[in-house]
Amino acid sequence: MIRRAVRFGQAAVLLVACVSAASAFAGPKKFPDEGVWRGEFTVDGEAIPFNFEVKGKDAAGAKFSLINGTRRDHFVVERVSDDELSVPMNTYDAALAIKIVDGKHLQGEYRDLVPKRKGARNLPFTAEYGRSWRFVEPSKQAAAAVDLTGKWALHQADDAELRDKNNNERDNRRNQVGLFKQDGTHLSGVIMTSVGDTRELDGIVQGNRFYLSHFSGPSPRLIKGTVDEDGNLQGSSGSGIYNVARFEGERSDNVELADPYKLTRLKEGQTRIDFTFPNLKGQPVSLKDDKYRGKVVIVEVIGTWCPNCTDQTKFLAPWFKQNKHRGVEAIAIAFEQEDSFEYFQKTVGKFQSFFDIQYDLVFGGVADKKVATEKLAGLNYMAAFPTTLLIDRNGEVREIYTGYTGEVTGQYFKDYVTKFNHVLDELIAEPDPYSNVSQVKGP
Question: Which domains can be identified in the chain, with CATH numbers?
């Protein structure tokens, strides 16, 4: 027995020694070098460049930041193996899967994690350390032959419309506004539609050609085109998830989009909306609940998959914390990429935590405008996610705002904030019609 115990002990020591030797042979865990990187997604054979910065020596405590002009979006880093990392895209159900070739070279893919289409929209990428340029290396850049600085009227169209220059159906195209700023060959800006914006674009002008891209968590976007002899634009916009769309444009200081306060409205004869949806705990939430009686209520129709929705929530969540003591409540109705309450709990639970949301979040159903229109009785049509409804103390809808324009849109964003606060101030100042209901007079 003693000899067998000795042999067992020797074997255990030998096993530990072998494991230690194997670990030593495997070498230290890899991690990307700290600093700025340049990546390239490959989408249908075309490159969509992006830039990011790594801070930290290992996954624990490291910060991964996507760079788009002046915009920075920060993400945590998770270690998968000695040479593999994962960067979850915060509130979006996606992640960057990274294989570390060495400290200065990476390869991997953008992974769509939505269960029913998992893997269907993965986009491969490579990245190289120490390259802060986006489209063209500085030493290889050509001079810009045009200056795109200013405001542009853009018209999205299909191929048939673009080929027929004499058609008079321009009003049927999807109108957009481009706000661009050019400094030498560097180009930045944003494109606004009647329902949102592209977030900040960053790129370059080479000769009479321009290139812009954006990647901040949702699918990457590429916009490119030319400026013709008359100073007009022809281009295309697309990404790895959305279809490529072509557009034309001309300079216009006076171009404006459709009024976002008039796109979605109440049906004729309606003054209210009505709904009952479950919150994260499965409890029904309705505007008829005592919690909302006599309060001003902000109803926000969102999806965690929607970039403009997350930008709007980034504004609303802190605004609500600062103003909830004034007699105001809020409800966010989420329409998600899966028609599943469990999936809603996963995505919206993460969303609530990320933005520290202190108002109710409820599940409306699957992300579909038609579904949202049917479930929000009283509205004529849900034109976009997000849509914000402002409801007075009597329970009547006073304003409906379609879409959201973020900080990058400059004066448009400032105007939105000014009107939002003005309308809320007015509604909050109105008397609570139920304040004396509970007071019962004696005989």
Answer: 35-129 (2.40.160.90), 142-251 (2.40.128.120), 276-429 (3.40.30.10)
pLDDT tier for residue 120 given thresholds of 50, 70 and 90: low
CB atoms within 10 A of CB 242: 11
Q: 326-349: string of b/e by CB count within 10 Å (b at 16+)? A: eebbbbbbbbbbbebeebbbbbbe
Per-residue b or e along 139-169, where b marks 16 or more CB atoms closer than 10 Å to that residue's CB:
eebeebebebeeebbbbbbeeebbeeeeeee
Cβ partners under 8 Å of residue 426, min gap 6:
none
Q: How far apart are alpha carbons 359 and 200 in whole angstroms?
A: 29
- 179-233 pLDDT, tens digit per residue, is 999 999 999 999 999 889 999 999 999 999 999 999 999 989 999 999 999 999 9
What DSSP element (H or E) covers 205?
strand 201-206
Least confident of 95-104, 109-118, 156-165, 273-282: 156-165
β-strand partners of 366: 336
Helices first, then strands: H and E counts in the chain: 6, 25
Radius of gyration (C-alpha) of the chain in whole angstroms:
27
Per-residue confidence (pLDDT) for residue 44, from 0 to 100: 81
Please, where are the H alpha helices in 280-391?
A: 307-323, 341-355, 369-375
Rounded CA separation 103/156 (Å): 42
291: Cβ–Cβ under 8 A, 6 or more apart, which residues? 329
Rounded Cα–Cα distance for residues 279 and 365 (Å): 12
Give the closest residue to 40 by CA, choosing from 177, 188, 161, 213: 213
17 by Cβ neighbours in 10 Å (0-12 / 13-18 / 19+) ranks as exposed
Question: Cα dist. 150→35, 43, 301 in Å?
Answer: 33, 30, 32
In degrees and rounded to multiples of 5, residue 3 shows phi and psi of: -60, -40
Question: Contact 413/405 with Cβ under 8 angstroms?
Answer: yes
**Ordered alpha helix ranges (H), 334-410:** 341-355, 369-375
Measured torsion, CA atoms of residues 299, 303, 306, 307, in degrees rounded to the nearest 10: 50
What does the pLDDT read at residue 160?
42
Asked whether the beta carbons of 399 and 392 are under 8 A apart, the reply is no
